[in-house]
Fold this sequence. Notes:
The structure is a single chain. The chain has 75 residues and is an alpha+beta fold. Helices cover 20% and strands 43% of the residues. The protein is built from 1 helix and 5 strands; from the N terminus they run βββββα. Strands 3-2-1-4-5 form a 5-stranded antiparallel beta sheet, covered by helices on one side.
Amino acid sequence: MCLAFPAKVIEIKDLLAKVELSGVTRDVSLMLLPEAKLGDYVLVHAGFAMQIVQKQDVDEMLALFDEMDGAPRTV
């Protein structure tokens, strides 16, 4: 299963952005989302920013990730 994660754009140089989530930074391509700006929250998948998302949606996603992290495994 593949999962996109939300992250905040903290730096942009050409079509490469540095994003941050929970203190972890990583470089991602903006080739598919050149309209992204500093401070935007983007969904990242396979090293590419795929979609701009609202901060409220990011907060909800992170709360769900936290909830899943504590869930018992059923496999």
